[in-house]
Amino acid sequence: MGSLVWKVLGTGAAVLAASLAEKGITTAWRAATGEEPPVNPEDPDTHWGEAISWAVLSGAAIGVARLVATRRAAAYYRESSGSLPKGLAVKG
């Protein structure tokens, strides 16, 4: 397996995880507030509390989902090829 395979596998996993996390946090937002999340938190007409809450919640959820997906993809890569992708292996 080469670096191109890892780029496709790692990137694909991260993109899919981010998409699923966004759908999940949107559903959770609707359930908690009864409203749609802000379309654009940077819009000055969006209240600060709503904009900051959405940014923190969505950023954390998407970041964690991408981390989990990339780690799982790296583990799969290691199981398939016998080594971690170049750049992920700990040097030392």
Overview of this protein structure:
- With 92 residues, this protein is mainly α.
- Helix content is 71%, strand content 0%.
- The protein starts with a helix and ends in an 11-residue tail after the last helix.
- α1 packs antiparallel against α2.
- The protein has helices at 3-33, 48-81.
Task: Record the SSE blueprint.
Blueprint: H1 3-33, H2 48-81
Features of this protein?
single chain; 92 residues; mainly alpha; 2 helices; 71% helix; elongated
The ordered string of helix (H) and strand (E) elements is: HH
| Helix vs. strand class | mainly alpha
| Average residue pLDDT | 92
Low-confidence stretches: none
Biggest sheet record: none
Shape: elongated
User: What's the helix count?
Assistant: 2
Portion of residues in beta strands equals under 5%
Compute the CA-based radius of gyration: 17 Å
Helix content: over 70%
Secondary structure tally: strands: 0
Straight-line N-to-C gap: 23 Å
Work out the oligomeric state of the chains in this entry. Answer: single chain
Short description:
The protein has 92 residues and is mainly alpha-helical. The protein has 2 helices and no strands.
